């Protein structure tokens, strides 16, 4: 069967395939194989430099050739490994055999071929490959996408810093804010969540079948294998892996760092779910219009509709991402005794979780780019909501010791349509300094925004 986007089981490889092109080389099975080849080659070259009499340092030409296998790894190479796996029924062994097949025409490498995968268990290769995949996915796709959203939201926060907007607590009219300040709230939250994603250390272990260097020490008992392994894991690419060394493990790396990373991404996603729903509401209120796209249809039967589909798409895909991320976070740190295989099949869905997140970030970016502020709607809403000035009036009354301030304003405003003249009549009757009366009489819902504009510009 020839697969196409229309026959794909997952919409990530079907309907939305084009949007996820940057993530696919990193988090796909091909990407997984690529990283396995990278780890095996890195380990092999490091062994040649370890000073063993049985494995002399590789020549510069051999090193260049080996690093070229990593740099130039292709879909055809991944296909060749899959062909070998049909026989081995073992994916890591298939990678080992593929690498050895590349040594056939080079006597120097062929003579040292038994040092490919030397003393390694499959998980030494797999756990470091997963970490490299996550490194690429996080640093090249997820963080840049979040950074793009933060930058866009920050520019909106500053542009709309002084545009008054009616707040709604419990869905009811409340003290005014500004559009920019509400966006600034999201900027600050999302930027903090982004830093937590970036701060997670990506760990790798290369310590053998149960984490004790058993096989390594059986070959060279006096060699410092732990220091050697640390050097391979932590040295920068391409001769190292550029990860953080994990000194304690069972057969598998414990995956606690993965849980931390996935939780951090899920937290950022939750912030964006909150924002997607708020924007949806603001579009519904008319605070934002959406730029039209030529030929786009909002409804099959209602020609007038311009739906907030980008924010709805984002909300749905962020929910899917978080459902998978949370399962990964809860499941991966749990393993029976020294090893079970439940993590293996689950780990193959890391790309699915990040794919739904990346898809959502893309939709949000498109949606934000289509928004246009409708200041007329914002002004009209504020002009209908003079009751929000009950708060400042009663606060000034309290300052000057007017008894029953809250109760007097409640009597005038609660559950009623409040007019400016109603509030002004109350203010004029108050026994407070004339300057304070004038200040309150000059106040409007649009001017009662506190430090909102300053806070928005500062975000």
Automatic annotation (TrEMBL):
Which protein family is it in? Belongs to the lyase 1 family. Adenylosuccinate lyase subfamily.
Task: Give the highest taxon in the source lineage.
Answer: Bacteria
**EC number annotated for this UniProt entry:** 4.3.2.2
Sequence ranges assigned to domain Fumarate lyase N-terminal in this UniProt record? 14-316
Q: Name one Pfam family in it.
A: Lyase_1
What is the protein's given name?
Adenylosuccinate lyase
Q: What does this protein do?
A: Catalyzes two reactions in de novo purine nucleotide biosynthesis. Catalyzes the breakdown of 5-aminoimidazole- (N-succinylocarboxamide) ribotide (SAICAR or 2-[5-amino-1-(5-phospho-beta-D-ribosyl)imidazole-4-carboxamido]succinate) to 5-aminoimidazole-4-carboxamide ribotide (AICAR or 5-amino-1-(5-phospho-beta-D-ribosyl)imidazole-4-carboxamide) and fumarate, and of adenylosuccinate (ADS or N(6)-(1,2-dicarboxyethyl)-AMP) to adenosine monophosphate (AMP) and fumarate.
GO BP annotation list: IMP biosynthetic process
* Originating organism: Caenimonas aquaedulcis
Q: Does the keyword Lyase apply?
A: yes
GO MF terms here are: N6-(1,2-dicarboxyethyl)AMP AMP-lyase (fumarate-forming) activity
């Amino acid at each position: 069967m020839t697969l196409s986007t229309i026959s794909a089981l997952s919409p990530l490889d079907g309907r939305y395939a084009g949007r996820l092109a940057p993530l696919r080389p990193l988090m796909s099975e091909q990407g997984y194989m690529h990283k396995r080849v990278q780890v095996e080659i890195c380990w092999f070259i490091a062994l040649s430099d370890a000073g063993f009499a049985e494995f002399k340092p590789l020549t510069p030409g051999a090193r260049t050739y080996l690093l070229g296998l990593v740099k130039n790894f292709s879909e055809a190479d991944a296909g060749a490994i899959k062909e070998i796996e049909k026989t081995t029924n073992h994916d890591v062994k298939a990678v080992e055999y593929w690498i050895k097949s590349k040594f056939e025409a080079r006597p120097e490498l062929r003579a040292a071929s038994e040092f490919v995968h030397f003393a390694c268990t499959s998980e030494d290769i797999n756990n470091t490959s997963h970490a490299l995949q996550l490194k690429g996915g996080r640093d090249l796709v997820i963080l840049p996408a979040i950074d793009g959203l933060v930058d866009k939201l920050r520019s909106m926060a500053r542009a709309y810093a002084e545009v008054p907007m009616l707040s709604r607590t419990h869905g009811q009219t409340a003290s005014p804010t500004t559009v920019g300040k509400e966006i600034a709230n999201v900027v600050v939250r999302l930027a903090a969540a982004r830093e937590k994603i970036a701060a997670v250390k990506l760990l790798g272990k290369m310590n053998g079948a149960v984490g004790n260097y058993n096989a390594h020490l059986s070959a060279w008992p006096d060699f410092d294998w732990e220091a050697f392994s640390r050097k391979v894991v932590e040295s920068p690419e391409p001769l190292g892996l550029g990860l953080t060394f994990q000194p304690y493990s069972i057969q598998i790396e414990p995956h606690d760092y993965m849980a931390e990373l996935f939780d951090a991404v899920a937290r950022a996603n939750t912030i964006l779910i909150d924002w997607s729903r708020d924007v949806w509401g603001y579009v519904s209120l008319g605070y934002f219009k959406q730029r039209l796209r030529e030929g786009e249809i909002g409804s099959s039967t209602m020609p007038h509709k311009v739906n907030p589909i980008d924010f709805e798409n984002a909300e749905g895909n962020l929910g899917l991402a978080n459902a998978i991320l949370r399962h990964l976070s809860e499941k991966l740190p749990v393993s029976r005794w020294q090893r079970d295989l439940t993590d293996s099949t689950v780990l193959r869905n890391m790309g699915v979780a990040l794919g739904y997140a990346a898809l959502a970030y893309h939709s949000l970016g498109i949606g934000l780019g289509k928004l246009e502020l409708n200041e007329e709607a914002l002004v009209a809403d504020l002009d209908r909501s003079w009751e929000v000035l009950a708060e400042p009036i009663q606060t000034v009354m309290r300052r000057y010791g007017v008894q029953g301030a809250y109760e007097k304003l409640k009597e005038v405003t609660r559950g009623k349509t409040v007019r400016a003249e109603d509030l002004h009549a109350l203010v004029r009757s108050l026994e407070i300094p004339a300057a304070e009366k004038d200040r309150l009489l000059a106040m409007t819902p649009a001017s009662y925004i506190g430090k909102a504009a300053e806070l928005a510009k500062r975000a």
